[in-house]
Amino acid sequence: MQKEKKTVIETSGITKIYSMGGTEVHALAGVDFQVDDGEFVAIIGASGSGKSTLMNIVGCLDYPSKGTYILDGVEVNKLERNALADIRNQKIGFIFQGFNLLARTSALENVELPLLYDRSGNKYNLKKRAREALEIVGLGDRADHHPNELSGGQQQRVAIARALVTDPSLLLADEPTGNLDSKTSVEVFGLFQELNAKGITIVVVTHERDVIHYVKRVVELKDGLLIRDELQTPRSAAEDLERIIAAEIDAENAAENTVVGADESAENLAEDVDEDVTVEIVKETPGGSTQDINELAV
Ligand SMILES: Nc1ncnc2c1ncn2[C@@H]1O[C@H](COP(=O)(O)OP(=O)(O)OP(=O)(O)O)[C@@H](O)[C@H]1O
Ligand SMILES: [Mg+2]
How far is CA 18 from the centre of its chain? Predict the structure, then answer.
């Protein structure tokens, strides 16, 4: 018998109106959006279509103007700020485009942060849990590095470790690969696929068409409305990464061969020159004068 899927996110008629000096911006115009346990969803749409606004509401960072939002069975838009922050801390890991790491603290301390804010009364071994989270993202050996001593992809992985350290059931990411090159973006999505396979529900906002292939469902927003919602069979980011790395190795080898080729032709050239010199010398011997050599050299 198939297990009934649990609904993690359920928004009904969500609107968001920002008031800006007398004018109103309708960022969300009535969004019904549902995500079940174990899904991996991408939210796409043009700039200004309301993606971040929706993510901030779903991530309990902001309230809707109207509508209801039920997270894991709790109607969170009725909660006051502190209670909302507690729910966010317990259930949600949030990843931003700009990583938002503290510059003067190590990777390990950055990852520990959400545990320090945890007011649930649980006593954790902070360092141990932060270290485990760094290991999950493959950065166990970079715990003592500061953000400026890490690559962009590594910084984003620290941010992912920080989002994972509280053991959230829901991971939200707003443009997590916006600052990364395409190979590192595939790496990050590979990590998301691994986490999703372990049962973490993931919703990610992205602009990049290339990475949309790695999710199971694509939702599109336009002018604050949901206009598309499609399931798809995801590509494997790990396999794509293998292909990218193989292509890089091929390209490196080809470049080396070109250099070797150049060396060889340089050697040939040197031999040619030697031959010329030899020819000159051979021809010089019978003539025996400098003038002859000069004539021959012309
Ligand atoms: N704090 C705010 N105050 C006023 N207007 C806002 C605020 N935040 C967003 N908006 C407006 O709401 C609309 C939706 O913005 P939102 O940030 O959700 O778009 P987005 O889809 O995330 O765009 P992008 O792809 O550029 O990040 C935009 O028109 C934006 O100007
Ligand atoms: Mg945005």
Answer: 29
